[in-house]
Records
---
Amino acid sequence: MNDVTLRLSGLKKTYLKGTPAEVQVLRGADLELRAGEAVALVAPSGAGKSTLLHIAGLLDTPDSGTVEIGGQDATGKGDRTRTAMRRRDVGFVYQFHHLLPEFTALENVVLPQLANGVSDRAAKARAMDLLGRVGVADRADHRPAALSGGEQQRVAFCRALANEPRVLLADEPTGNLDPGTSDQVFAALMDLVRESGLSALIATHNLDLAARMDRMLRLDGGVLRPAE
Ligand SMILES: Nc1ncnc2c1ncn2[C@@H]1O[C@H](COP(=O)(O)OP(=O)(O)OP(=O)(O)O)[C@@H](O)[C@H]1O
């Protein structure tokens, strides 16, 4: 169906580790994300959620199975095509912000747009709009080191959404924040997701946050199942 933004089918991934010889992290993981939905990904530590997110975001390849984004199958595509798909369609947020330290908050949100061919003027306007929506417009000219942890993550969300991706993938996006800040920053992220109409797959250990999403999936034993 057209409104499936991300489809993962039968993903398998084994790492060769030396001794013991190998670890089978994904054993046939399936997922369909629809436009506009926010899905929580919960998993015990080491279950493979980072592996799943990296494969879904075309940063890594599965041993078998397929990844489709916006109806386009990435299987067997070369690096150039995968990079183009990722730049156009995927936004990433990590536990740590990964903002470029020598650039301001505004520049961090502008740069990915310039890389995608957006004009400087349009990129700045979109960046200021995004920063305003998460309440950090007044920090636009500060470098990351001058921002609080919560502000850094808000800027990281704006950067991830700068190119209007179809899919947002987040790996413990509030895992590095104290509980009060985590709650506020998560609310800002959910507002952005709702306003943008994109789909989001958000890994979290926090079951209260997970319960605020549309549904919850558990990664355990290498497959995805609905979680209560
Ligand atoms: N490049 C690699 N080479 C070998 N083993 C790896 C590699 N990457 C991950 N693993 C192993 O695969 C398993 C899953 O790792 P992954 O990072 O995906 O888990 P995770 O669910 O994100 O864990 P956490 O919640 O602790 O971050 C772990 O046993 C890990 O040690």
Note: Helices lie at 49-56, 79-89, 105-115, 120-133, 149-161, 179-196, 207-211.
---
Amino acid sequence: MTLTISITDLTKRYRRGDARPALDRVTLTVDGGMTALLGANGAGKTTLMRICVGVLRPDEGRVVVGGHDLATAAGRRAVKRILGYLPQELAMYDDLTGREFLDYIALLKGVDDRRTRRDQIERMLDLTGLSEHANRRIGTYSGGMKRRLGIAQALLADPELIIVDEPTAGLDPAERMRFRSLLASLGGARRTVVLSTHILDDAAQTCPDAIVLHRGRVAYQGSTAGLAAIAEGRTYLLPPGAPAPPDAVVVNASADAAGTRYRVVSARPPAEGTLVPPTLEDGYAALLQLDGSAA
Ligand SMILES: Nc1ncnc2c1ncn2[C@@H]1O[C@H](COP(=O)(O)OP(=O)(O)OP(=O)(O)O)[C@@H](O)[C@H]1O
């Protein structure tokens, strides 16, 4: 049985009198497997994740994680025991080696037995490809290696629930692919994984389910394929030089010697253009367009 996160009517304002709350009556259910949490800058993703891991309190609403109510101290303690969390900015100690850092985190997570701790750390180092760098000081690690160490610490003590906030931001393409397959290998039947990302390709490759937050509200919850399908019948590739229709969202543009070629999502068919199967990016653009607030 995988763990479920039930979120009901969650509202969070950072300052009293803020015109728009960071989260506005958010109601969601997150089941096992991998779920992508999508949304523009400031949509409320980090706020939602911080509330779900118990480090931030909502103004209103309720979060129950695996049967534990986060409104209670006992509930928050219970969730900490089953949680692996990789925040956007994870504080690491540059003077520690990777192995020492993991040892410290494992102790904080209550893995008291030295041998169990050592075995778990070796497993995580191996899984994240850091074994040969484990005795180097973290201060000498690349950004990608620090991210991998971040996921290694999140996975210590075999958590049932994993929440990761933009884990691939700033990584080069090779590190990103490596990280992506590592994440995909985690989302097995036993775990509930929430992955917040701006990189829709990462979500499309790893997550069967998706949530889109828009200005603090839920704009979509369902399958990733269903999100892509919102742009079905309205995604067009325009020939070089053809202008994008005025009400279309330009998903991308590529230029070559023949001119610029636009990929657009448009409710109305353009004068010239070929209908193409939509990607997750197209579906996301269509969703925000339908919402009347494409950014
Ligand atoms: N500590 C804070 N104090 C005041 N306002 C905040 C604070 N943290 C976030 N906000 C505001 O709350 C809203 C939601 O922010 P949040 O960081 O949750 O969004 P996000 O979707 O994670 O964005 P990003 O993709 O840029 O990380 C934004 O308007 C942001 O400015």
Note: Residues 14, 22, 39, 41-47 surround adenosine-5'-triphosphate (CB under 6 Å).
